[in-house]
Amino acid sequence: MVNTEPMTQRVELATVRDRLALDGLVTDYAVAVDDGDWAAYRRLFTPDGRADYRAAGGIEGDAGTVAGWLAERCAEFPVRQHLFVNRRVRLGTWEQDTGDTAEVRTDYVSPGLPRRGRGRGHRARPAERRPVRVHGGAHARRLAAEPGRRAGEMAEPDRRTGGRCDPLNPHPAGPGRTLEASRGREAPMKNVGHHLASPWRRSTAAAVAGALPVLAFPAPSLWWVAYVALVPWLLLIRSAPTGRRAAFDGWWGGFGFMLAMHHWLLPSLHVFTFVIAALLGALWAPWGWLVRRTLGGSPSGGRVAAALLVVPSGWLTIELIRSWQGLGGPWGVLGASQWQVEAALRLASVGGVWLPSFLVVALNVAVAVLVAVRRARVPAVAGLVAVAAAGSAAWAGAPRPDQTGERTRIALVQPGVVAGPDSPDRRFDREEQLTRELAGQDVDLVVWGESSVGFDLGDRPDLARRLAALSRETDAEILVNVDARRSDKPGIYKSSVLIGPDGPTGDRYDKMRLVPFGEYVPARSLLGWATSVGKAAGEDRRRGSEQVVMDLGDGLRIGPMVCFETAFPDMSRHLVQDGAGVLLAQSSTSTFQQSWAPEQHASLAALRAAETGRPMVHATLTGVSAVYGADGGRIGPWLGTDASAAQVYDVPSARGTTLYVRFGDWPPQAALVVLAVYGAVGLVRFRRGARRPLVPPVRTTHGSPVRHGR
């Protein structure tokens, strides 16, 4: 007779070891949820493992998705504890592999302590059955749910009963209530997260939230909205179940922001406006991931403190990237919404428009934390105090432009809308008429808007003679803008040309930074089809090679820019470094006359003036024309889009050097350093974590076979 006792003992020993492994698996699950260790939670699952909480009003997904969702739901319960008892294990088969599957059923007591008030303890009740695969036999440490079968349920904590976050029994009932009873009714989960479970609903919400900051810009000009406009977007992103979903939320929000900011392009570019918004919106995808990384779940005080630096730095990096001319330039930089706020203009003199942008985003992060992460109020309040301190320090300590006491009388000529096939000639006639009205008003300089002369003066000497005559009548130089094919070189240029009593003086500036699609089509061989769906440029205009400072005598030196170039803070800074005492912009937004564009464009001059400590003149064909002092404050009246007039302004001269002119774009450079340090620290922590074993070594009373006596 064959002795089967050793074989039977081996089978029983394997069964015991399997049961112990399953016992450890359940305990590890409870500890991971109680401690909020979602990395450990994810390690409990096989790569294809999934969890299904939909029966309780939750979600279904892979371990990473569900872990993010659980982190959000458990944030309201800082004290969590699962007490598992009466484990029932039934070993089974998995694809004819005997002993490698098991069904586990366990009861537990779940006392809970919600954030407000002390919850009531829960009576022991049976938990959901879970199919478990024991990979590697007795040494199992990972959980896998069979596709299509339920692997657990969870619902939002019921605050009415003082319940708590409990993945195994999502419905926190009072004494006497059983799991079966709680399953008999629909989960009480009418919250935002539930309604946004659909990816399309969530994407729409992200696009709407991303568009909110545009209300702070002209024409609404609700500048104070900027301080909280990002909060809904931040809260949506931090609730994303995964980093990938957070990146999509960032992308969709960026799409909404870009579309709302440039909606006035729709009549010109039509459907291509959506393409541009989608491409630029992608810049916010990494930012969305970064927001969830720092603020997702239940962040600690340290993570919140890091977010107050990292999230604004990420935003500033996006603004820096899209400031490249090929991506459309820095139109809609968040700090530009503060052009009416004196404290923000003082900050701009320190760090350009970038510094107000950084602080506005930091303020939004602090408010979002105060709203959603109550236990991190201290670093959030500290962030608010830091923003206030930065504004106060700039107000008190930043060098102010020195007023020389001298004034320059500058006249702006705005002819208004002149349409029709012969509009260049009729516009010139109207400008000539308005300029003659300035005779005898002791004007030092007359400025016409962009494209004010539609012919090259070399081809039209009659126009040159008429301009010279106007200069003599007004006893002032005239700065016109010629938009035409040049007679001395090939191509169409937009050029600022200075006219004196004897005609053109020889001072000329050719526009360097052209408007994408409006004045040239980027990668025309690839994107040339844009001309067939909108009013994109049929022929690319030529670029100038360098900036020019024009000397008008008597100490007056002007630095001209053309239209779109006023959005670039570095151009005005370089002109001041080259000795410009007055900044000039010649612009035309007649294509977008009834939109927000004219006021948005005019507001940029206030920032350029504050950044450089030099007055700035913004002259247009059809409005809005405006003049700002060296501190960014408005001088005299605006000429709106309905005006056709010539207006004289007494512009006070200023001298001195602002910190921004001296040190340049240091805030975005500092932001890049912050992101680099954050990435390096994260990489070091990741490598340290990768070297740690997934399962800590087992220690017994009899000692380890590897470490005796331990």
From TrEMBL:
Key words of the record: Acyltransferase, Transferase
EC number, as in UniProt: 2.3.1.269
Record protein name field: Apolipoprotein N-acyltransferase
Species in which this protein is naturally found: Streptomyces albogriseolus
Source species taxonomy: Bacteria, Bacillati, Actinomycetota, Actinomycetes, Kitasatosporales
